[in-house]
Queue: 4 jobs
Job 1
Amino acid sequence: MQASYGLATAGSEQVSECRVGSLETVVRSLLLPVLPFLPACQISEAGPPLVVQRDSAGIEIVEATRPLWGDSSRWSIDPDPLVDLTLSGNGPRHEFHRLRDMKQRPDGSLVIADGSSQEVRVFSAAGEFLGSFGGRGDGPGEFRSLRRIENAGDTLLALARGRVTVVAHNLAVVGTFDIDPWAIDLHYLDGGRILPEVSRPVLPMDGLAGRVRRPEPLVLLDLEGTRIDSVGDMRGAEVYVFVRDGSYVGTAPHFFGKQSHVAARRGHILRGSSDTMQLEELDLSGNIVRILRIPDYPLDLSDARIASERDFVLDGFTPGHPLRGPFEAAPASDTRPAFTDILVDPSGAVWLELHRGETEQDQPEEWLVLDANGTWLGIVEMPARFRVAGITMDAVLGVREDALDVQHPQVLRLTRN
């Protein structure tokens, strides 16, 4: 077992938290003021350790106890866009509606999945339209329900309901394959592996009732859609199934219900359920190799907050609506979900989107950041009305809706101080 120790430096208010596993590590830690780049230690202001690390049955457990940044974020997002694809050109190619996803390709070009036109459009890093593929239909390269796009090296993957389209860098369609129709996202891993993320609804024939949280399988595919292996599962969305007199009535969300999310990081899989602020890192055989967690992260919910959420949702139903009754009777969790999305930037840092309830959707997105070693850096707030789609080393990709609800795919500058 390895332990973490605090090493005080003479005449300094700083503490070096060193992950000590050998005498060599201790010697290296003593050289920290001279060699600040050594990865064995982390510097923080005096106080409780930032990170506690231990091994348990071969699994590395990293617990972050407090944010390095304190109350103020040291990373910032400039709200003035570097690129705005709605304003960088004219005509229908620069008009977007029901935008589904946005990615940056390795050459810096920008790719947009537009749900209204069912097109994938490609723009230069400066916002010049370069080309597109897709359109509404059932033929090769056409879509009925375009959902996500994903980089797979120089290849682009486009996910629609029940099908993945594989596209070369020049936008030529090189293949398609069928996929689980309930796949909501794709994650590309090293070695040509794809991990679909599946969220399947609870249906009457499932024979379930009450609080339901069904597991969803995690299955690796190759770039031709061939199954490689199963790597376990994740806990599905928490819902409530109503049955009256033995008959299925309907399904309603569990207020502040929990859900699981996955992401790819350096050839591994990150898996986390929003019950707690914790992620599991799996290898490609499905073995847990590391756990990142923030113990006792506050997720408290008041009765007033729950009542406000329920009232807000019920206001969306007209009197007598068949779903109003199930939503009125739907239960609520005792705690709010910890996060609603996982993104990984090129440095290996993990970004967790903090949960916002339905009554909080007008508030800016906030993202909790863990560095590649599991240190809790702090929270980065996004500009108002901006929805994050991806993060690079120096930029955030996403879409902003203006006061007229016009969608603006944008690239915003990210400053890492």
Job 2
Amino acid sequence: MKGLPEERAIVFAHYIIDQDATVRAAAKAFHISKSTVHKDVTDRLRKLNPALYAQVKAVLDRNKQERHIRGGIATREKYARIRTHSP
């Protein structure tokens, strides 16, 4: 996604809020790097639109608190696939 970083930051923010998405999911949806999305929605958005930044921060903080759970689920699914495909 090309465009002005300020416009990008707002688009990413709305996507993250509306979809309850992670930075990784937003990056994948827009075909852009995670670091770009993170920089846009933290640094740039904080200066550009503090109210929108607060909403995004709430979603990102919740995702950060839940990531160990998602990691455990992914690991369980990985080993379940390995067991079903083993001879």
Job 3
Amino acid sequence: MRKGLLEYCILLILKQRPAYATEILEALKSADLLVVEGTLYPLLSRLKNAGVLVHQWQESPSGPPRKYFSITAEGETLLEELEKEWSSIANTVNNLHQMKQEISL
């Protein structure tokens, strides 16, 4: 479940704009989702190999060039599917939570 959630979060971030790995990690961290580089890099590679992401090297104002990732048309389609799945899961959890509250009364 976490793996699917990370894919969804990464695609949400990259839907806004292309980003390099450190920016993705910072965005996840600011959303209170702590992910380490050792988890992120293989996931980015897998998404790229699946055609969901592409990357482009860009010069950095400080240091070596950076690999910026962006979402592809296939990635947009996957994101739509993941949004539907997330909505369904969230509704199920909310319904269960509501049932628990009603039983408690």
Job 4
Amino acid sequence: MKKIRIFLAVIACKFTRWLIRLLGRGGTDLPGRVALKLCPDLLRELAKTVTVVIVTGTNGKTTTSRMIEQSFIDAGISYFANKTGANLISGITAEFAVHSTALGRCKYPYAVIESDEAAFKEVGRQISPKAVVVTNVFRDQLDRYGEVTHTLNNIRIGLKNSPRAVVCLNADDSLSASLADELENRVIFYGVNTPIYKTRVEEVSDAPYCIRCKSEYVYDFVTYGHLGGYRCPKCGYHRPVPQVAVEEVLCSDTEHSEVVISVGGARYETNVNLPGGYNIYNACSAMAAGQALELAPELVSKSLSEFSCGFGRMEKFDINGHSLRMILIKNPAGCNQVLNFLTDATEPFLFVACLNDRSFDGKDISWIWDVDFEKLIDMGDLLTGVIVSGIRADDMATRFKYAGVPAEKLRVIKDYGQLCEACLAQDRPVFIMPTYTAMLDLRATISKKYGFKNFWE
């Protein structure tokens, strides 16, 4: 009976995705939900023969996954991944099903799976991964995740449900690093041993107090947010020494970063082919994953200069000689890092912010008032203008007005087709900062108007 249920579920999933994509849609979630109705434990059955690395955490999951994928490609490892970012149990199940035979035998020996933080507690139990990478824990979508301690607990449960996994934890994140206290798993700490920005925006820390005794942390250095060299002066809780660490930031601009990463005492000069300090962290976590999976550090280091970014994650569109870079944001920490990244700009640019409040974005948009948009004003003439779009464009426009953006530099354009035309009507680079569903909608418009691939292709 179980084999029949698996057969029906896999066939139904494949057919549903085929039908949805025939209609020009992604088919990333519904096929999995259909399959799970027919066989609730389908994911566990399909994952039995697959060696899986799971990437979870608040920020950086998709990019870190793409980095790990490139190291698999360079190592000649046959794998599949949930590239579309469908990281709930239904989306992950769909990816396993479409990469399996009708009888439920997966066609690939390895998988790179991005998992939503809340979903991870169940995903880890069903998949039993070989390695888990936890990127960080930040405040994100309070209406869905709650406070950071709730997110941290979801990840903790997922790790306890993954007893065989080697766990890669961010040493610089006092929240993530604390997970090691309760684990019997082998733990690899990774981190950044040096500041990564010349100047930083003003940020509200999501974890200013010791997770053990609630005293205020003292920092020897800060990279961004609450990440850095923290220590508690009262109970002694402190940043652990990372086994994989960024020792130097040689250069960082709007196209890439060059860093030195140490692994077991050996140093590797690494070119990270995406800009932004947060991508330096993603690169470091990918190097840690390589250690967990016993890949050669020099191979992983090389792969970081060659990987393709995930859709909307620093994705660059060159259209008729114009440069548009799309940078997904979803919370204050990530948004502030975009602003930190823009401080490396050396030529004038147009800034675009697209704000939605659908369920996948988070209904509560009050977080935009915790972002240091005032940093844009400090850039003077480098900022040629600001355009706001999306469902909550007017709210974002109000935030920019309070930040001090002059009225003559601020425009509201809610139609994405018109927005694209406005971006291409000037000869400056354009940096577009959308929330998740705004990114999907805008990217679909760009794909249709200018011939780019759809996000699931």
